[in-house]
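Quick log. Single chain, no ligands specified.
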Amino acid sequence: MIIKSDMMKTTEEHEEVDLEEEEEEEEEEGSEMSDGELQEAFAKGLLKPGMNVMANKPKTFANNVDGLKRCLADFRKDLPWVERLDLTNLPAEDVLAKAEGRETKTTNGEINADDDFEREMFFYRQAQATVLQALPLLNKHGIATKRPDDYFAEMAKSDQQMQKIRKKLIAKQSIIERSEKAKQLREQRKFGKKVQIEVMQKRQKEKKAMMTAVKKYQKGMTDKLEFLEGDQKSGKESSQGSKKAMNKKGPNAKRKFKDQKFGFGGKKSGTKWNTKESYNDMSSFRAKVAHGKGPRGGKKGKGGKQNKRPGKSVRRKMKNRS
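-> predicted structure:
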């Protein structure tokens, strides 16, 4: 069998080309490996640092001035003010601050962006200045700014829908009112319960104090019975108050007549009883009268006359004689 050398060379070249193509395909397939294959390759140690590097491409910025000018020219249209309705102005003057003598910082647009009130007031006054400037322009161009008296516009929602909304609002309001009433009732119950608890505590405290006083009295630690007069104090105070009121008004005519006729009352018995002061008082003592030497009794002083009335036996004899 005879094989030509030319045929051998061509076949070897074809085989080498096929091997190179297979290697390239394997490389392409390796570059598009899945996550599982990459993890297996990393576990086997086939992946090494420095093999895969992320390259960040620099971002190119384009400043196309001509294109921007063309776009701006397309936006800009020479239209009348009625079609544009744009105004640029500063805020209106703060009349109230000027009357009070306060300084206004927002006349030239310099405000503190962090101050909510100052910022909102700036917007309000700027809108006010815009309205004051726009109304004359609108009237000049014949544009109406007020709704006519006979203006009629169809409602955006039907009457049925509005009735549903009204019923829903009424139901919601009634629910709120019921909840408020229930809350008030709960508060009243809490307050009533609190008052009841306070009354019960007060009674228990008074009872405890009375029991301790009774125990002290039983043991002989005290001889006062003031705890028995606790309930009568209020009645006595009220009666004393009524008596004071009567005394302030004065006695009536009947009381005055009886006082004039019978005196002012008071204790009659025991008026002649001796007291410590009367016992020790010796200013009215007379020795002659006490020992029968004075004019007291049937005899008078020296040389005095005897009593004109006869004795008892003589008067009896005189009576028998008659």
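The mean pLDDT is 76.
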